[in-house]
Amino acid sequence: SYTRIAGYVFQEDVLMSTLTVRECLLFSANLRLPDCVTSSEKIQIVNKIMEELGITHIADRKIGDEMSRGISGGEKRRVSIGMELVIQPQLLFLDEPTSGLDAAAAYQVVNLLVNLAKKGRTILFSIHQPRSNIFQKFDEIILLSGGNIAYAGAANHALEHFSRIGYQCPMNYNPADYLIDVLAQ
Asked: Residue 52 above 80 pLDDT?
């Protein structure tokens, strides 16, 4: 039953380069949804997901690879997320969803995840060195140092917590960079 309430998106996009965006999502729907879900219902689910992820305009474009041009890295990440969303999970786990993306694509992916969370899904992901505009999007964080929890709680209270124990973040400094520096000590 766990596989019906939780989805997992790998750090690396594992997509068939010769399929279109729509075909990838339908492939996932056909494999993962129960037989009682009709083909037309699966198509409706896929169309809704493409709209939610902002990838409807590339629905019929091939994924592509190093040899044949296809969709962008940020679009591939959204397709990977969509392949998990077909099961309509309550929990969505992602392993470094911004890895390998440029700053703009990384922000778009995190913004997408925030919007999914606002619609009632629980989103959990690992991330290394987020930009400040991405860090500001987090609700709750867990910071690890040496495999131990150094902080767990509201993201907007993390700097206050570390300030109370003697680590004051300099003005105009990326809070995420500062926290990483503190934890590395």
From this structure: yes
Beta-sheet strand order (sheet of 6-9): 6-9, 91-95, 122-126
- State the Cα–Cα distance between residues 119 and 15, nearest whole angstrom: 26
Which residue from 74, 75, 67, 66 is spatially nearest to 20, judged by alpha carbons? 75
Structure tokens at 185: 């000590």
**Phi, psi for residue 125 in degrees, rounded to 5:** -150, 155
Residue 162 to residues 2, 63, 130, 165: CA-CA distances in angstroms?
36, 44, 18, 5
Mean pLDDT, residues 22-38 taken together: 96
* Strand pairing category for 122-126 and 148-154: unpaired
If pLDDT is split at 50, 70 and 90, which confidence band does 94 have?
very high
**Average per-residue pLDDT in the chain?**
94
Secondary structure letter of residue 12 according to DSSP: S
Q: Which spans in the chain are helix H?
A: 2-5, 21-32, 39-53, 73-85, 103-118, 132-135, 158-164, 175-184
102 φψ region: left (φ > 0), alpha (ψ -120 to 50), beta (else): beta
Residue 2 confidence (pLDDT) above 70 = no
What is the per-residue pLDDT across 72-88, written as a single tens digit (0 to 9) for each?
Answer: 999 999 999 999 999 99
Task: Answer yes or no: are the C-beta atoms of 8 and 93 closer than 8 Å.
Answer: yes
